[in-house]
Amino acid sequence: MPIAAYYGAMLEDRKIDFHLLRCLDVLLTERSVTRAAERMNMSQPGMSNVLSRLREAFGDPLLVRTPKGMEPTARAEDVWPTVREALDGIERALTGGSEFDPATASLNVTIATTDYAGFVLFPKIMQRLEQEARGITITIRPPDPTHIREWLEEGAGEIAIGFVPTAAETLKTTTIYRDRLVCVARRGHPAIAGDISLDAYTVARHVIFGSAFTGISTLELFLDEWLETEGIVRQAGMRVPSALLSPHIIAETDMIATLPAGFVGRFRDTLPLQIMELPFTAPEMSVGMFWHERTHKNPAMVWLRELIRNAAGGLGG
Fold this sequence. Notes:
It is a single chain. Helices cover about 45% and strands about 20% of the residues. It has about 325 residues and is of the alpha/beta class. The chain folds into three domains: about 5-95, Arc Repressor Mutant, subunit A (Orthogonal Bundle), CATH 1.10.10.10; about 105-180 and about 285-310, D-Maltodextrin-Binding Protein, domain 2, CATH 3.40.190; about 180-285, D-Maltodextrin-Binding Protein, domain 2. The strands form four sheets. A five-stranded mixed beta sheet has the order 4-3-5-13-6. Strands 11-7-12 form a three-stranded antiparallel beta sheet. A three-stranded mixed beta sheet has the order 9-8-10. Strand 1 (about 65) and strand 2 form a beta hairpin. The model is unreliable at about 1-15 (pLDDT under 50).
């Protein structure tokens, strides 16, 4: 019996369909009814109803509330690998030999990406999807470099995009564009006009993307580690949860920032900024796309990754 038919019969006996099984996988991944509902493009009450049906079918709470938030039960942890294997088997059986038609496709794709890459990439990506694949819904989640492999492996996302110099070797990866770092200050800055000296760079207070509350930006962390090897120390004046705040804060204060040229260049015509070469030669920034073996040959993912590569063409500063 074909694997799809086998699992279909098994699920019918237990009154569980493919959609419920997919919801179970997402619930156990996200450990949140709200986030799972967003992933599946459902309402929160709808996902709560799904969880109730799953609990009845499995005879187990599956997710229980703890001081640390929702956690899987022992039963859920035990069945999850089998559920994941079944979903992968059905997906391979249904898509392995078929051509992907973006015009008729209907699917949700979760992509982990940074503010930097998202800001410059996704207007182009969504423009292409609007034209060619209106049935594909994209959900963006902030990346956590320490968990990218687990997210992609467990199905919490299909693609990750960003500056991740220490990505797991088990992931598939490709560089989609390169950028350089520049220094940004406001026009009319009392100590900086047209270019910046190393003394001015170290004396100024910096706007830095990322904090202990939102996660440290891999780019900012990489830059600080590199600066330390050169004997250069930045003074943090403000740490922000979104890189999109940085240009606006810089435009109205005497603080400065080190940002990717392709990112900050988008603000050149709307904010009074000076965009200058750094007073030292910084390493180039490579923005990569990462995915797991489980989606490597999926026709929809192959098509989408190629669309992302094309959208990234010509980016950078």
